[in-house]
Amino acid sequence: MRAVFPGRFQPFHLGHLAVIEWLLSKYDELIIVVGSGKDSHTIYNPFTAGERILMIKKGLKEFNVDFTRVIFFPIMDSFTSGLWIRNLELYSPKFDVVVSGNPLVISNAREAGYIVDLPPMFNREMYNATKIRKLMLENNESWSELVPKSVYSFIKEIKGDERLRDIARSDY
Ligand SMILES: Nc1ncnc2c1ncn2[C@@H]1O[C@H](COP(=O)(O)OP(=O)(O)OP(=O)(O)O)[C@@H](O)[C@H]1O
Ligand SMILES: NC(=O)c1ccc[n+]([C@@H]2O[C@H](COP(=O)(O)O)[C@@H](O)[C@H]2O)c1
């Protein structure tokens, strides 16, 4: 069976990693769809689609997760949710199951006739990207504990946390 796991991954964190490990033990193939693919350089979506795919690959490699059974691609948001799932189908190889904890994605997938698999929540209070972006904005380095080390290094290398603080400034 082939499962699709959509997410914005802004940034990729240890909760996402745990979901992917769980999915690879359960399904033959996994499609990781980087959503809101056109968006970057905003407070909600600071990283580009390519940066996000690279973060995921670096994180998986660090944890010795074999990603030969994983397909990665970005898609853009659509005008309507109904169109979003149809757009996903247009970009993707066929899939059997949609994996998400996001109520909007779950509802879209069910309405389009897909089986939905809800991932277990892995320390959701700690591992959530909103919290990580907030810590970056506050210049609080403790976010380093919430992402793979390779992802932390990559974000520092591209000055991703500085980018987020720059974007959040009011007019000069
Ligand atoms: N700690 C976690 N455990 C299990 N699933 C998670 C966890 N964090 C995120 N997910 C799931 O991963 C998918 C992609 O999530 P997303 O990239 O939005 O991360 P997020 O941490 O929810 O980010 P944000 O706070 O920016 O919305 C969603 O289906 C979400 O429910
Ligand atoms: N109307 C739409 O374009 C639509 C609907 C449902 C989900 N999505 C996208 O799916 C992705 C879901 O990922 P998250 O669970 O990380 O929010 C996001 O990029 C979200 O924007 C878009």
TrEMBL record:
InterPro entries: Cyt_trans-like, NMN_Atrans_arc, Rossmann-like_a/b/a_fold. GO terms for biological process: NAD+ biosynthetic process. Its main location: cytoplasm. One of its GO terms (cellular component) is cytoplasm. Residues 4-134 form the Cytidyltransferase-like domain. Its EC number is 2.7.7.1. It is found in: Cytoplasm. It catalyses: beta-nicotinamide D-ribonucleotide + ATP + H(+) = diphosphate + NAD(+). CDD domains: NMNAT_Archaea. Pathway: Cofactor biosynthesis; NAD(+) biosynthesis; NAD(+) from nicotinamide D-ribonucleotide: step 1/1. It is an enzyme of class 2 (transferase). GO terms for molecular function: ATP binding; nicotinamide-nucleotide adenylyltransferase activity. Coiled coil: none annotated. Keywords: ATP-binding, Cytoplasm, NAD, Nucleotide-binding, Nucleotidyltransferase, Pyridine nucleotide biosynthesis, Transferase. It comes from the Archaea. HAMAP family: NMN_adenylyltr. NCBIfam families: arch_NMN_Atrans, cyt_tran_rel, PRK01153.1. Belongs to the archaeal NMN adenylyltransferase family. This is Nicotinamide-nucleotide adenylyltransferase.
